Amino acid sequence: MIRISRRTLLGAGFTPAMLLEASDPWKDKSPSEWTDADLVRMLNNSPWAQPVDIVFGSPELSIVGSGPEGFIDRGPKRPGIPFVVRWLSAPPYQEAYARATYGQGEEALKQAKEYLGRTEPHYLIGVICPPKLSAPKQESAVQERMKSETALKRMGMADIHPDSMTTVPGKRQAIVFRFPRTSEITLADKSVEFSTVLYLSWAKIYLRRKFWLEEMIWQGRLAL
Length: 224
What we know:
By secondary structure, the protein is of the alpha+beta class. The chain has one domain. It has seven helices and eleven strands. The chain has helices at residues 6-9, 16-21, 25-28, 36-44, 91-102, 106-116, 140-148; strands spanning 49-55, 61-63, 80-87, 122-128, 151-153, 164-168, 174-180, 191-199, 203-212, 217-218, 221-222. Strands 1-3-4-7-6 form a five-stranded antiparallel β-sheet. Strands 2-9-8-5 form a four-stranded antiparallel β-sheet. The relative contact order is 0.17. Residues 1-8, 10-20 and 65-77 have low confidence and may be disordered.
């Protein structure tokens, strides 16, 4: 298997054709059988990785002043700001990430095995930002507000708020939220919605994405 470029891995280079090539690899293939197209699908448009497009003029986007170059509305078709929300702690996502990141070879396989062997005590949710988007504000007061306004929501249950959050720099920055597992998410919940507010220098973005738990079953178990 050819090692996928980091650009494609993070969603900056995948195309609709790549997604069409892969049906639902998590249903009828083992990880060792996943193709490059399968990995792109797993990491960018699967039950554990959901795209979210925030459109200019929508209630989800509150602009302060003018938007940054590359996101300014210049035509009749309103552009969107593409995000991907990923369930980073889910075993099928981790399998795809390890295969796309570490590649082949003895040392690579050793690193992948170590990564997959780690026990994760939190639900990890990652928000992958588009390349031109500035980083969320780093002031401690703003980050505390983001934590308080970020939650995993279930019908009839108390919201789960993150213990911590981390910004991972790069061409496509990632914001990783760590949610405690003290209130277990089960199939009886049917769905869980991730909700957060991103505070940027020029805008406030309300980001929401619902995950359907029945679709997140992998190898006979709910994979979160």
